[in-house]
Amino acid sequence: FHESRNFTLRLFYFYTMPIQHIVLFDGDEWENLLPVSATRSVADIRIGILTIKEKWEKYLKVPVSILSKDYLNPKYSFIPTVNCLFINSAVLPAHLLVEEIVNLENNSILQNEETVIAASVVNNVINSLNDLKSLFETIKSKKKTKQNIVKINHPWDIFTYNGQEIRNDIQLLQLKPNPEKLSSTNTLLGKYIYIEEGVQCECSVLNTTNGPIYLGKDSEVMEGCTVRGPFALCEHASLKMQAKIYGDTTIGPHSKVGGEVSNSVLIGYSNKGHDGFLGNAVLGEWCNLGADTNNSNLKNNYSKVSAYNYPSKKMIDTGLQFCGLIMGDHAKAAINTQFNTGTVVGVCANVLDAGFPPKFIPDFSWGNDKIFELEKAYEVAQRVMGRRGIHLSEADKQILNYIFEHK
C-alpha cells in the first residue's frame, strides 16, 4: 500500500508538468516477434490479462499513441507532434521503471546495456521509426536504468512471462478477490478468484493454490472444467465442457477453448474448441485449431527447442526445454494436425496435410506447396470476422496485402 501511495504521489509531479504525448514505439524486437507482430504493434500483444498498451495506460493514467512500421501505422493513426515521451513497446511496465521514465530530463534517453527504453523528445517532430532511430544517435544525454527490466524479445517470451503478468495485472487493476460471486455448484481451492460482471461458471473446479484465476466480463466456464491458476479468461471468452487448463495461461477476448491447455496465450478471437493438447504456445487473432489438433512442447531427448526466426531466416535456439506452437493471425489447422516442438506458423497459413507439418510454415501457405491467394484470404477473413460482428477494414486488407507481397 505504501509503495503504491508513494508511487502515486511521485506521479503527481509528472501530471502537473506540461503534458507530454506518450508514444509506444516498436524497436528491433518487432522483427524477432514475427509472425505474432506481423499484423500489429508489439504494444498490442496481450500478456497476462492486458495488452502492453493497456498496461502503460493504467500505469500512466493517460492515453498513449503507437508508432510502428510504416505499413502498420494507418491502423494506429499516429499524429506527429512535438514534446513526446517515447517508450519501447516491448518493455513491460513496473512501478520503479515508470518513475524513472516520467522523470526523464528533456531531450534525454533512458537505456540499459542493449536497449533504448525511453526517450524524452521536446522539439523534434518524429514521422517514422527511422526518424526516431536517427534521433537516438544524436541525443547525447543518456541515463542508465537502475531497474532490471522485463522485455519480450521473441514470441516464446510471451508465454514465459505470462503467469507473472497475470499476477501483476490483477494488482494493476486493483482487483479484490470475490469467490462468493460463484455458485455453490463449483469446487473452489483457495480464495484468489477474481470475477467480473456477467460471468457464467457452473460445476467446475477452480484451484488458486499456485496462482490467481481471473474471469473477465461475460466470460463462461462450462460444466466440468478443471482450472489451475495463474489463469485469465478475458471478456466474452469461454471454456468448453470438461476443458483442462493448467497455469500461466491466458485466453484472450472472444476466444473459445476446449481440451487441454498449458502455459499458453491466445491473444484474442481465436478458437481451439475441441479436444487436443496446446502447450507453451502463442496464438494470434482469428486462428482456428481443428478437432484433435495437438502440439508437442518437449523433445524426446529433453534438449533445448529451436524455432524459426524471421530476421535471420533460420532456426535459432529458444533456450527453452518446453516450447510448442507459435501462430500468426488468421492461421488455421485442419483436424488431427500434429505440430512438432517449436513450430512457427505464419499469417493466413493453412495447415492441411497429414503427418507432422514442417517446423516453419510461411505466411499464406496452403498446405505444403501451394499459396493461399490474397483475395480468397480476404474472403475467409471477412467471413470469420463477420461472425463476431467485426468488419475487415481497408487498413486490415492493406496490412495483409503487405505481408503477402513480402512473404
Describe the structure.
The protein is α/β, with parallel strands linked by helices. 23% of the residues lie in helices and 28% in strands. The protein has ten helices and 37 strands. The strands form nine sheets. It has a nine-stranded parallel sheet. A six-stranded mixed sheet has the order 2-1-3-6-5-7, covered by helices on one side. It has a six-stranded parallel sheet with strand order 9-12-15-18-21-24, with no helix packed on it. Helix 1 (2-16) packs parallel to helix 5.
Write out key terms for the chains shown.
single chain; alpha/beta; six-stranded mixed β-sheet; 37 strands; globular; 407 residues
Termini separation comes to: 50 Å
Total of helices:
10
Mean pLDDT: 94
What profile does the largest beta sheet have?
Answer: 9 strands, parallel
- Largest sheet, order of strands side by side? 10-13-16-19-22-25-30-33-35
Q: Which percent band covers the strand fraction? A: 25-35%
Helix coverage percent of residues?
10-25%
**Number of separate strands:** 37
Coarse structural class:
alpha/beta
Cα gyration radius (Å): 21 Å
* Shape summary: globular
Q: Runs with pLDDT <50, length 5+? A: 12-17
How are the SSEs ordered, and which strands pair?
Layout: H1 2-16, E1 21-25, H2 29-32, H3 52-60, E2 65-67, H4 73-76, E3 84-88, E4 91-92, H5 95-102, E5 108-111, E6 116-121, H6 129-138, E7 141-144, E8 150-151, H7 155-160, H8 162-172, E9 187-189, E10 193-195, E11 200-201, E12 205-207, E13 213-215, E14 220-221, E15 226-228, E16 231-233, E17 238-239, E18 244-245, E19 249-251, E20 256-257, E21 260-262, E22 265-268, E23 271-272, E24 277-279, E25 282-285, E26 288-289, E27 294-295, E28 305-309, E29 314-320, E30 325-327, E31 332-333, E32 338-339, E33 343-345, E34 350-351, E35 360-361, E36 365-366, E37 370-371, H9 374-386, H10 394-405
Parallel strand pairs: 1-2, 1-3, 5-7, 9-12, 10-13, 11-14, 12-15, 13-16, 14-17, 15-18, 16-19, 17-20, 18-21, 19-22, 20-23, 21-24, 22-25, 25-30, 26-31, 27-32, 30-33, 31-34, 33-35
Antiparallel strand pairs: 3-6, 4-8, 5-6, 28-29, 36-37
Helix pairs in contact: 1-5
